Amino acid sequence: MIACDIGKPVRKVDNDIKLSGQAQYIADFHVDGILYAKTIRSSCPRGKIKKIDMPVLPNGYFAVTADDIPGKNSIKFLIDDWPFLAKDKVNYFGEAILLLVGPDRAKLLELADKVHIGYEKIPAILTIEDALSGNFVPIFGQNNKFAVYDYEKGNVDEAFSKAVKIIREKYATGYQKQAYLENQGMIAVPEKDGKVSVYGSMQCPYYIKNALVQALAVDEKKVRIVQAFTGGGFGGKEDYPSLLAGHAAFAALKTQHPVAVLYEREEDTAYTTRRHPAEITLETALDGEGRILGMKADINLNGGAYAGISEVVLQRSIYNICGVYNIKNLRVTGAAVATNTVPNGAFRGFGAPQVIFAIEMHMESLAKAFSIDVLTYKKMHIVKQGDRTATNGIFYDEVKLPAMIEKAQRMSGYTAKRKTYQAKPKLHKGIGMSLFLHGCGFTGSGERDIIKAQLKLCKQKNSSKVEIFAANVDMGQGLQTSFRKIAAKALEIPITDVLFAYPDTERVPDSGPTVASRSIMIVGKLLQKAAEKLKKRWQEDNDIEIIQNYEAPQRIKWMGEKSEGDAYPAYSWGVNVVEVKVDPLTYEVSVLGTWSVFDVGQAIDERIVEGQAQGGIFQGLGYAAMEVMTNDDNGRSRQNNLTNYTIPTSMDFAPVENHLLKTYYEDGPFGAKGVGELTLLGAAPAYASAVAQAMNIHVAKLPVTPEYIMREAEQNE
Amino acid sequence: MSKIKFILNGNAVELDVVPTMRLLDVLRNNLGLTGPKEGCGEGECGACSVLVDHQLVNSCIMPAGNVAGHEVITIEGFNKQSRYKKLADTFARAGAVQCGFCTPGMILAAEALLNEVPHPDEQQIRQAISGNLCRCTGYSMIVKAIKMAAEEGGGLW
């Protein structure tokens, strides 16, 4: 039985199987007669494929090309422009062209070396600047933009006409690789009558199913998707797995053998989706006291070679550009541009980390221009309950930022340290505080109009067990435990009486993808409602099946075409503090301490939420400080493993001290809001602010590498 | 091919393999032990960790021939020992398990440390797991789990 406080931690249901090494990830599957697929990739960033010279394939070896795709050769997204296998042209270095399939992986590598592809090169667009220059033939459409947005709130021109001072700044953020420890992998098994079953590492079983139904041109009954244990996702297993699943399925159907597509680290790092690099311009009109009258923001995201989900990422960027600040007159323009580089995709935060960094650093600059203490300046502008959001929606719930800031100050000693480090620049120490929010769930009307989640809860006659049927996955974030807890609590039964298998699209309804910090808040609420219904019918002497469909909260209003209204049903909030010391000779940064305060509503399990906080902040610090990813002149990633793409180790940063605020959100299960993404957003601006103070520089770029600090510090001298 | 004899999880084994094969492949493919994972294939991430003569080793960069005459312990062997039971308990209580992919390696890294240093301080723990990458937890809850095991392990190490 779950005690009255649902937040009290319980043992995670999958601890033992993972600890003992028995959890079967996709590469651990043993399948008789399995063949492996090796992807042959473009060595040209942009060009026409002129010829493909193939080696003679030994018996039992096959080539799979675009011609083997029975249906539409493009992955199903909002815009279907990304081919599973390139046919006539390539648009990025590393684009998949064909697959070699056979029983021996070493032999496949040997054969792969003998495939020679000739290209007629076309000048490649490699950067956002190239993409916007108009000097190249567009990759996409007429203007080379996958999506363009433009919205305004209030009267920006009037605000700027009244301005005493106008400050304009540019910010830039880099790539970030999800770098889950388990590389991407899928196994497709051909079944009777043209059916195919696909097993693998994934966040969104139904995205894959829908992609395969379209690509195979089959009835939906012919495609079955089953999630295996998934070794981390962080967004990287939201969109890209559809491509792998397609490859495995085409090969399985052609060869009539089970086929595994298992990426190694090099392939996964260099050729799968990453966080979008961004260039952000903020221009702010201020009165004589430094108060913000209005702001113009322009945001460009590097989408890579194909649209994928860039438009949705861009939406989150443009609707969160104000961060936690009340800016009454606002004009935002934004674009996701096409470049001949690896397509970018989902990564924890989804377009928000870029803009939260920019707005937080911009607020520092504005405070500085008026010689106001930065925290005082931020507090002058933070939103409160009833204020308008960037898109003229409403902050319906209480905003507890003032209390959170106070708590973070007490935990970290921020105020005294900030003063001391300002007074003693020779210490080369700094402390920075970031304030941030995260819109929980899909942007706009996505839940209501696109996802339309459905969940099923069943109890068999004469059984005390209840089974949850949902498509949401556990990729490490603890959903196997949290969902069981919600059902157990609502039904007042032991958690061991709640079953929740890994999703299999033949068993579970489409409760939507495991993304956007939506699983607990949106699907968990469906589960709570279903459980409450089941409880009322508990005594019935028959099988009981409860179907629960998503209904949008009454108060939410969204007009997509105008980018107006409530872009999110609710917001989670955070305050981060990072303290650093910079070595003035090497410009290496030591993190001395990190503190965080989060408002995520009611935690479904405090220990699980603590794990999200700890892990999210470390990923954010990696983004801030050390995770460098760049392309060469061919748009080829210079980083392709964990040696040259370094992620934080246990030695890199001081431990995080975290505090959870207890609040209640009425439309979330037992009061819960979204957690996962929020925790990554604040580390980078807090770190950047601390480094800026320590070295008396302005930080306008992520990651804040020692080389960057050196350049900025030397410019100051 | 040559014959390689070693002790695996307490049992003598004799295999006919190319001695330059990676130990990880021999364990996973020839012996069916999938507890050691391949995360990077170049000794960077530690997901493939095993114990060789009780030292922590990345099995993805060790030739199988090197273990001839030595003792190899994988998570499949270690998970039957009382030391494992203590670590599994503290890992669960500290919330040290998320996606689980690094977990078997982390457990063995903890064992290798505690076997040498039964009462490590925080810095020693951080050092001991610094060759084992985790992308989920931010490490502190793993560090705490190892500290708890050392404190509660009374006589196990």
From TrEMBL, chain A:
<dbReference type="Pfam" id="PF02738">
    <property type="entry name" value="MoCoBD_1"/>
</dbReference>
<keyword id="KW-0560">Oxidoreductase</keyword>
<dbReference type="GO" id="GO:0005506">
    <property type="term" value="F:iron ion binding"/>
</dbReference>
<protein>
    <submittedName>
        <fullName>CO/xanthine dehydrogenase Mo-binding subunit</fullName>
    </submittedName>
</protein>
<dbReference type="InterPro" id="IPR037165">
    <property type="entry name" value="AldOxase/xan_DH_Mopterin-bd_sf"/>
</dbReference>
<dbReference type="Pfam" id="PF01315">
    <property type="entry name" value="Ald_Xan_dh_C"/>
</dbReference>
<dbReference type="InterPro" id="IPR016208">
    <property type="entry name" value="Ald_Oxase/xanthine_DH-like"/>
</dbReference>
<keyword id="KW-0500">Molybdenum</keyword>
<dbReference type="Pfam" id="PF20256">
    <property type="entry name" value="MoCoBD_2"/>
</dbReference>
<dbReference type="InterPro" id="IPR000674">
    <property type="entry name" value="Ald_Oxase/Xan_DH_a/b"/>
</dbReference>
<dbReference type="InterPro" id="IPR036856">
    <property type="entry name" value="Ald_Oxase/Xan_DH_a/b_sf"/>
</dbReference>
<dbReference type="InterPro" id="IPR008274">
    <property type="entry name" value="AldOxase/xan_DH_MoCoBD1"/>
</dbReference>
<feature type="domain" description="Aldehyde oxidase/xanthine dehydrogenase a/b hammerhead">
    <location>
        <begin position="20"/>
        <end position="123"/>
    </location>
</feature>
<dbReference type="InterPro" id="IPR046867">
    <property type="entry name" value="AldOxase/xan_DH_MoCoBD2"/>
</dbReference>
<dbReference type="GO" id="GO:0016491">
    <property type="term" value="F:oxidoreductase activity"/>
</dbReference>
UniProtKB/TrEMBL annotation, chain B:
<keyword id="KW-0408">Iron</keyword>
<dbReference type="Pfam" id="PF00111">
    <property type="entry name" value="Fer2"/>
</dbReference>
<keyword id="KW-0001">2Fe-2S</keyword>
<dbReference type="GO" id="GO:0051537">
    <property type="term" value="F:2 iron, 2 sulfur cluster binding"/>
</dbReference>
<dbReference type="InterPro" id="IPR036010">
    <property type="entry name" value="2Fe-2S_ferredoxin-like_sf"/>
</dbReference>
<dbReference type="GO" id="GO:0016491">
    <property type="term" value="F:oxidoreductase activity"/>
</dbReference>
<keyword id="KW-0560">Oxidoreductase</keyword>
<keyword id="KW-0479">Metal-binding</keyword>
<dbReference type="InterPro" id="IPR001041">
    <property type="entry name" value="2Fe-2S_ferredoxin-type"/>
</dbReference>
<dbReference type="Pfam" id="PF01799">
    <property type="entry name" value="Fer2_2"/>
</dbReference>
<dbReference type="InterPro" id="IPR051452">
    <property type="entry name" value="Diverse_Oxidoreductases"/>
</dbReference>
<dbReference type="InterPro" id="IPR012675">
    <property type="entry name" value="Beta-grasp_dom_sf"/>
</dbReference>
<dbReference type="GO" id="GO:0046872">
    <property type="term" value="F:metal ion binding"/>
</dbReference>
<keyword id="KW-0411">Iron-sulfur</keyword>
<feature type="domain" description="2Fe-2S ferredoxin-type">
    <location>
        <begin position="2"/>
        <end position="78"/>
    </location>
</feature>
<dbReference type="InterPro" id="IPR002888">
    <property type="entry name" value="2Fe-2S-bd"/>
</dbReference>
<dbReference type="InterPro" id="IPR006058">
    <property type="entry name" value="2Fe2S_fd_BS"/>
</dbReference>
<dbReference type="InterPro" id="IPR036884">
    <property type="entry name" value="2Fe-2S-bd_dom_sf"/>
</dbReference>
<protein>
    <submittedName>
        <fullName>Carbon-monoxide dehydrogenase small subunit</fullName>
    </submittedName>
</protein>
